[in-house]
Write a structure and sequence with these properties.
The complex is a heterodimer of chains A (about 350) and B (about 425).
Chain A: H1 2-50, H2 57-74, E1 76-77, E2 80-83, H3 96-122, H4 130-152, E3 167-170, E4 173-176, H5 177-198, H6 200-210, H7 212-217, H8 222-244, H9 260-274, H10 279-299, H11 304-307, H12 315-326
Antiparallel strand pairs in A: 1-2, 3-4
Helix pairs in contact in A: 1-5, 1-6, 1-8, 1-9, 1-10, 2-3, 2-4, 2-8, 2-9, 3-8, 5-6, 5-8, 6-8, 9-10, 9-12
Chain B: H1 12-16, H2 22-40, H3 47-53, H4 58-80, H5 88-103, H6 116-119, H7 134-158, H8 161-181, H9 183-186, E1 193-194, E2 216-218, E3 222-224, H10 226-249, H11 252-262, H12 264-269, H13 274-300, E4 302-303, H14 310-323, H15 328-355, H16 360-369, E5 370-371, E6 379-380, H17 392-410, H18 414-428
Helix pairs in contact in B: 4-10, 4-13, 4-14, 4-15, 5-7, 5-8, 5-13, 7-13, 11-13, 14-15, 14-18, 15-16, 15-17, 15-18
Classes of the chains: A mainly alpha (about 350), B mainly alpha (about 425).
Chain lengths: ~350, ~425
């Protein structure tokens, strides 16, 4: 009799904790998916607008996080010998509005870097093969990376998250505030991108993506479209870098020398899954890959000694390889038309 | 025989010759001859590389030979077949680990069973290594890499263009994870393990037949140092693989691969099975990568799993693009340029550091470029605290990246294209064409 009651209560407890674990894992997956979506949107906007697969996104997203750190923690401006007028008082955590304003500043600086790269390295290559452009961005990535590694090797590169690592409790489940913030950031970024696509420039960009020469013949300023695509794409990559720096994510409130530089490479499966030129594909791909990664990390952890430490980070690549065998152009990508 | 027009072929054999013109034949053999003499320490010839690379120039130069073998494989895949892969370092790693499992010192075959600890064969962190001689592990390294290449090729052959490049990046990260996950093969993730030494043995006897790890006489003929022996051995391997590559390029297989590169549907219409030849291209390139990786690891002695990374793959892309895509000579030019530039830069900064106090022009340049404390030179002399004056090691990455961008923008044909332009200018001289 007593045994049954104990069993029942244990069962309820187990169920409750299972549900709690599930909710926590789900939120974690959605938050990671949001980061992936921000980064993926950056990739896709640049690819759609300029036919460039931007491998430099890795260094650029890290640059965004480093800029944020310079603005918030050092109270200076990147590249400029001035103080940041919007920096929080020294040694204090900024309030949320001030923090958001500083994010906007960091994104502007990242966008400027994107414009410089576009002008110096991409513009001379308009009309060249896809692969040549992709290799150029690989070169940019390698050239930029030492600077960001150098910058983060200094101690304490915090990005000053206002809420630190606090969380809300929902029932028994702990919901970190940063996860919700990442989801909100992705929603805002997604809304901006969708609004942008319906604006005049967005239509111009879609026209350029469809046929560069025909768009030029219609009087569209293709060079301007390139600039906007790069500014927006790099800003989104930087936003992803900043969002990924928030506390329960592995870098833990800092710019990480190990994790930030490969964030963009972890997003490659997302854009391949969705299709390189599909904005809607990024949404599906981001959530699918992130949920697969997080759920594999949570529910296969008992096999962790066999699978090796950090096995969940290669789940996206395995999903990607399987999807590519079945659909070589991703789920929503445009198949290349092959002519003899 | 009147005036010999260049590029006039009267027989098919001439067109298919390995080195069609007398200039190419002469230049090739002269180059090899000079190389050998320089390695033997001929007074003037060995002075040239030691001016750029310092007295121990033979080590960095020997190091590029195994990479050259892998680069030739990359040439077959990217230059001949037109399949852009960024996963070449992964296949090099596979070859290297097959080599070390078969040839390295370890705890016998039981340690080679994956997860031997969980299965219960050996309950300790043993390392896999069977101590077999080189004539076993070197070919098996190539074959092992080929098998893995064939294993992934169903995915790789279906996927095109950038999607293929991204999919192969996935291979790199999976490979890095395997390196972390299987320490019985890979050793410690940060420091790696020891590879078998380069030496010929019949079986596991004490004195090797051909010894490459100590100074001494070779075949009772010529006295060589350890470095010289390895130099000649690896140069020989590179030459063998170069000849094989040239033969593949001019054979039926090579023509099929190039047909697929140029127009895949047209090739298929003409009766070249696309799937089969893409698979062959992938397999051959993996074989080269496996051999190159095994020799590279073996020459370096100790390689950590983190070294089979994206950066190594990008090295090969840079070699092909900077050298000039599609030719063996261009690949070799690119190899020398890409792999030796960092060494030259390092040597140059060391030389500048010596000039610091000297005054004059060199002292002034050194003062501007280098930093020893307070001033604002971009290059740090001592690899002290990380911070703005970056070390030469990091600057080399910047130079490497900028070189890729500059070559892609200004000279898409690469170094080989520059050579072609110079040649064509003098061919028609004094007329412009």
């Amino acid at each position: 009799m007593g045994d049954t009651a104990l069993m029942d209560s244990l069962l309820i407890l187990a169920q409750a904790s299972a549900a709690t674990t599930f909710i926590q894992t789900l939120v974690k997956g959605l938050a990671l998916g949001s980061v992936y979506i921000m980064m993926g949107l950056g990739f896709v906007i640049i690819f759609k607008g300029t036919q460039v697969l931007n491998f430099a996104a890795a260094a650029l997203s890290m640059a965004g996080a480093v800029f944020m750190s310079i603005l918030i923690a050092d109270g200076g401006l990147p590249f400029l010998p001035f103080d940041n007028p919007l920096a929080p008082a020294e040694g204090t955590t900024p309030g949320i509005p001030l923090w958001l304003v500083n994010i906007a500043l960091a994104l502007i600086f990242a966008a400027i870097v994107g414009l410089i790269i576009e002008r110096l390295a991409i513009r001379p290559m308009i009309g060249q093969p896809l692969f040549a452009m992709a290799v150029i961005t690989l070169g940019v990535e390698i050239a930029l990376r030492p600077f960001s590694i150098d910058a983060t090797a200094l101690e304490g590169r915090s990005i000053g998250v206002p809420w630190g690592a606090e969380s809300w409790t929902l029932g028994d489940a702990l919901i970190p505030k940063s996860y919700i913030a990442a989801i909100v950031m992705a929603l805002v970024a997604g809304a901006i991108v969708f609004a942008f696509y319906r604006s005049r420039f967005g239509v111009a960009m879609r026209a350029v993506a469809f046929d560069q020469e025909a768009a030029m013949a219609q009087g569209i300023n293709v060079a301007r479209v390139f600039q906007i695509a790069w500014a927006l794409g790099v800003a989104l990559a930087a936003l992803a870098g900043i969002a990924y720096g928030m506390a329960p994510f592995p870098p833990g409130g800092n710019v990480s020398q190990e994790i930030h530089p490969i964030l963009a490479f972890r997003v490659l499966p997302v854009i391949v899954l969705g299709g390189l030129d599909s904005v809607i594909g990024v949404l599906y791909g981001g959530f699918l890959i992130a949920l697969a990664e997080v759920f594999a990390g949570q529910y296969l952890s008992q096999y962790g000694s066999t699978l090796g430490p950090g096995y969940s980070t290669i789940v996206p690549y395995i999903v990607m390889l399987i999807v590519l065998v079945v659909r070589p152009f991703g789920l929503f990508g445009t198949p290349e038309i092959r002519r003899v | 025989m009147a005036y010999r027009r260049p590029l006039l072929r009267t027989a098919y054999e001439q067109d298919a010759a390995m080195l069609p013109t007398w200039f190419q034949r002469g230049a090739f053999f002269l180059l090899i001859f000079t190389f050998c003499l320089a390695a033997l320490g001929a007074p003037f010839l060995s002075g040239i590389p030691s001016f750029f690379l310092g007295g121990t120039w033979i080590n960095p130069v020997t190091n590029i030979f195994p990479l050259g073998i892998a680069a030739l494989g990359f040439l077959i895949l990217v230059g001949f077949t037109g399949q852009v892969s960024i996963g070449h370092a992964f296949f090099m790693g596979v070859g290297a680990y097959v080599a070390v499992s078969l040839g390295g010192n370890g705890d016998g075959w039981k340690a080679c069973v994956p997860f031997h600890d969980e299965v219960g064969l050996l309950d300790q962190a043993a390392q896999c290594g069977m101590g077999l001689p080189m004539w076993v592990w070197l070919p098996m390294a190539g074959i092992g890499a080929t098998l893995v290449g064939i294993l992934v090729s169903p995915a790789a052959v279906r996927v095109r263009g950038l999607y293929l490049a991204i999919a192969t990046i996935g291979l790199i990260f999976i490979g890095l994870h395997l390196g972390r996950m299987l320490p019985e093969y890979a050793g410690d993730f940060e420091s790696g393990r020891r590879w078998p030494e380069l030496q010929f043995k019949w079986w596991q006897e004490e004195t090797p037949l051909i010894d490459m790890t100590s100074d001494g006489k070779w075949f009772g003929l010529i006295h060589l140092t350890e470095e010289q022996k390895q130099f000649f051995f690896l140069l020989g391997m590179l030459l063998i693989f170069g000849v094989i590559t040239k033969n593949i390029a001019r054979s039926r297989t090579g023509r099929a691969l190039q047909a697929i590169r140029d127009r895949d549907i047209a090739a298929e219409v003409m009766g070249v099975p696309e799937f089969k030849y893409k698979l062959i291209g992938f397999a051959i390139s993996s074989f080269y990568a496996g051999i190159g990786g095994a020799l590279f690891a073996s020459y370096n002695g100790r390689v950590a799993p983190v070294q089979w990374s994206l950066l190594l793959s990008v090295d090969f892309i840079a070699i092909l693009l900077i050298g000039g895509i599609g030719t063996i000579a261009g690949t070799m030019l690119g190899l020398v340029f890409v792999e030796l530039t960092p060494e030259v830069v390092k040597k140059f900064t060391e030389w500048l550091a010596d000039q610091l106090g000297n005054g004059g022009l060199t002292g002034w340049v050194a003062d501007v470029l280098l930093t020893q404390g307070g001033d604002f030179g971009p290059i740090a002399v001592t690899p002290a605290a990380p911070g703005w004056p970056m070390s030469v090691f990091l600057w080399n990455f910047v130079i490497f990246g900028v070189l890729i961008v500059v070559f892609m923008i200004f000279e898409p044909q690469g170094l080989y294209g520059i050579w072609l332009r110079i040649r064509n200018y003098w061919k028609g001289w004094p007329f412009s064409y």
